[in-house]
Design goal:
The protein is α+β, with helices and mostly antiparallel strands. It has 5 helices and 4 strands, in the order H-H-E-E-H-H-E-H-E.
């Protein structure tokens, strides 16, 4: 395990992005707890996360863009209204297309 400051991350951002794309997990603080993350499109990384968390159910996903949500999630007619409000303080619970 390695610990990096925000400044170190910003100086070596491409390096860290490459690691995440390759399946590495990472931890980040939120307002109240620390969260463990991975690239949700990387099946190896998701498997590692499931093993560590001993979790078999669905995970929440932080989407990189509204376009990504539209491409990968089933959006009911009422969901478009809330998708248009993003970014904001909303959590949308949607089913994945795959």
């Amino acid at each position: 395990m390695h610990v990096f400051t925000k400044d170190e991350y910003l100086q070596r951002k491409e390096f860290f992005v490459h690691k995440v794309v390759r399946g590495e997990l990472f931890i980040s603080p939120t307002d109240t707890i620390y969260r463990i993350h991975c690239d949700a499109t990387n099946t190896l990384a998701v498997s590692r996360l499931r093993k560590i968390k001993k979790h078999t159910g669905p995970f929440s996903v932080m989407a990189p863009s509204k376009q990504w949500v539209r491409e990968h999630c089933r959006i009911p007619p009422s969901g478009e209204e809330y998708l248009d409000r993003l970014p904001g303080r909303y959590v949308l619970i949607l089913r994945m297309k795959k």
